[in-house]
Amino acid sequence: MPPLPRLKPEPIPAIHPLPEYRVEGERKQWYEDMKRVFQVPWMGVVTMAYAHYPAFFKTLWQGTRALAASQPFVEAFQGNRIFVEAEIEKLAPPAIVDRLATLGYAPREIDDIRQTVEIFSHGNQPYVLLATLARYLLESGEMAGTNEPEAAPAFGGRHGPEVAVPFVLMEAHHADAPTQAVYEDVKRVLGLPFVNTDYRAFARWPSYWAQAWDDLRQFAGTPEHEALCQAVHERCLAEVSRRLPNPGKLTAVALRQAAEQDASFEEIRDVCRLFQWLLPGLVVNVAFLRAQLQEQG
Predict the structure, then answer these.
(1) Segment 78-110, tens digit of pLDDT
(2) Predicted confidence band of residue 1 (pLDDT cuts 50, 70, 90)
(3) Can you say whether residue 194 is alpha, beta or left, with left for phi > 0 and alpha for psi between -120 and 50 degrees?
(4) 3-class DSSP assignment, residue 160
(5) How many other β-carbons are positioned within 10 Å of the β-carbon of residue 242?
(6) Does 11 sit behind a cis peptide bond, omega within 30 degrees of 0 on the bond before it?
(7) Average pLDDT, the chain
(8) What is the pLDDT of residue 11?
């Protein structure tokens, strides 16, 4: 049993994500800095929810920024991605490219979908490590990695995908009735009160997303799906608790004290539990969608 079991909080706590279009001042600077370090075009719902608690978010990001920009961190999340995608390929998700072509999708449109999936295949990985670290420090203990700066050399260059596809989200109030129905099904099947950014981005192509989700929903919750989510959880936990360095010298005490400046410890703990529970599943689901789009033969 890992020291931090995978745990979905019941009841699911209320979350209050601070969207990018509303953020100002210091928190806006943190948003831009985090996107730059993670090399992603969006703030995850997880970190927008953390930002509702400014002392907690400030302490977490200031304490992890040097780590997030380091080579060991990048290698850790890249290794996690390689693992998940290899495991998904063994399950042979149903191919979708021919079905999209039959619907009239041109090769360029299918490539745009692939590029969008690539954004999340990469970008979810730093978010799941950060979410695991936040919960671990709140609930379990200290990072065992060294504080020495030389253990965390900065990652040089680019690890994020170079994509040209516009980053567009299909919000529920923009969507037609069939897409809204898919969104409701997503929430029901995944047991969540909101639709992740990833799925709103994929719904930019409603007929693609309807078919992709129909395949994915049959996989979600199966023993194979749950086992892979658990494996992602355990890999991330091993990284943050034992392997990754701690150049920012972030301590459990400092993060807990910061959390208690904003709200009750239990409130922030449950928000952290929620995202640390759901993100391994999101990583697995996006890997499934990516595998569907691979060329066959």
Answers:
(1) 999 999 999 999 999 999 999 999 999 999 999
(2) very low
(3) beta
(4) coil
(5) 11
(6) yes
(7) 95
(8) 94
Asked if the bond preceding 280 is cis, omega within 30° of 0, the reply is no
* Number of C-beta neighbours around residue 225 at 10 A: 19
Maximum C-alpha span of the chain:
57
pLDDT digits (tens, 9 = 90+) for 135-161: 999 998 899 988 888 999 999 999 999
**In the structure encoding, which two tokens stand for residue 44, read together?**
């995850």
DSSP result, 45-88: HHHHHHTTSHHHHHHHHHHHHHHHTBHHHHHHHHHHHHHHHHHH
242: which DSSP letter?
A: I
- Secondary structure of residue 154 in the 3-state scheme: strand
Nearest-angstrom CA–CA distance, 126 and 156: 16
The pTM for the full model equals 0.96
Residue 101: per-residue pLDDT: 97
Query: What letter would DSSP give residue 296?
Result: P
Let me know: does 217 contact 189? Beta carbons within 8 Å.
yes
Structure tokens at 82: 């390689």
Supply 292's token pair: 């569907």
Q: Which of 175, 190, 170 minimizes the C-alpha distance to 279?
A: 190
* Per-domain boundaries in the chain: 40-146+185-292
Residues 6+ positions from 6 with CB-CB distance below 8 Å: 229, 230, 233, 277, 280
Q: What CA–CA distance (Å, rounded) separates 29 from 68?
A: 16
Is pLDDT of 249 > 60?
A: yes
Please report which residue ranges of the chain form alpha helices under DSSP H. Answer: 25-38, 45-50, 54-68, 71-91, 97-103, 107-139, 177-190, 197-202, 206-219, 223-238, 252-262, 265-292
- Specify the amino acid at residue 140: S
